[in-house]
Design brief:
This is DNA-binding transcriptional regulator, FadR family. By secondary structure, the protein is mainly alpha-helical. It is built from eleven helices and two strands. Helices cover about 70% and strands about 5% of the residues. Strands 1-2 form a two-stranded antiparallel ribbon.
Length: about 250
């Protein structure tokens, strides 16, 4: 922010608190207020906005609820700009999806489109060392899935690490941020594959083959394997849905 340009302007009469909130939010989104930066005191903001303390406090409460501000007490208290993290983004995304009842098919379609792009970028931009690491991780994942008594927590952890590693190889921070939010926010229902013995073995082989295709710089094979993974997932979910909707036969009916 330059010293010659004021940060805020007098609020509009009749909806002062709303205008105050909008101006502060705009300053944050434009980068004129940086993460962890302290806002002016309430008294200073009253003078800048030309409004009362009530309107200022109402605006600050609204921005705190949106996750843009942190209200701190004590000697260094005041309103501070929040640094939005992946955890809060993921939690917000999960809550949004639950409230809007997004169909599994929509989530799967989105994840597949992201993964199809990621494998191409990983092949083009990933280093040889990163590709070897991905293969090693995928083989460890395959071995874990092939165990007679699989560890669900370990499987989830390895799956998450594989997806984040693949996103990192794209060398595009936006893809990496999105994948982090996706991993924390919601699942593409892959757990259904891991819970079903037949699909679990196929999924284990598929991840390992996909990693090898990336390491061998084979985009057609890599994309085909991604498509096969999500085709299996759709099939597995359809089978579960059909099984759950089938009428149960009681002993008296037999």
């Amino acid at each position: 922010m330059t010293t010659s340009e004021p940060l805020f302007f007098p609020a509009k009469a009749g909806r002062a608190s709303e205008d105050v909130a909008l101006q502060i939010e705009a300053a944050i989104l434009a980068g004129r207020l940086a993460p962890e930066e302290r806002l002016p005191s309430e008294r200073e903001m009253q003078q800048q906005f030309g409004t009362g303390r009530g309107a200022i406090r109402e605006a600050l409460r609204a921005l705190k609820q949106k996750g843009l501000l942190d209200i701190r007490k004590g000697v260094k208290g005041g309103a501070y700009v929040c640094k939005v993290g992946m955890v809060s983004i993921g939690e917000s995304l999960a809550l949004f999806l639950k409230q809007h009842d997004v169909a599994p098919s929509a989530l799967i379609e989105f994840r597949e489109s992201v993964d199809q792009t990621l494998v191409l970028l990983a092949i083009a931009r990933g280093s040889a060392e990163a590709k070897r690491t991905l293969v090693s991780m995928a083989e460890e994942f395959e071995a874990c899935l092939r165990q007679d008594e699989h560890d669900a927590d370990r499987i989830g952890h390895l799956d998450r690490d594989l997806n984040l590693t693949l996103a990192g190889m794209a060398a595009n921070p936006i893809f990496e941020w999105i994948m982090q939010a996706l991993q924390r926010g919601f699942s593409s229902h892959d757990y259904t594959l891991y819970d079903t013995p037949m699909y679990r073995e196929r999924t284990a082989a598929n991840w390992a083959e996909t990693a090898r295709a990336i390491a061998e710089n084979d985009p057609l094979r890599a994309r085909s394997l991604i498509g096969y993974h999500y085709a299996m997932l759709r099939s597995c979910l359809n089978e579960r849905a059909a099984a759950s909707s089938s009428p149960r036969v009681s002993p008296d009916d037999s």
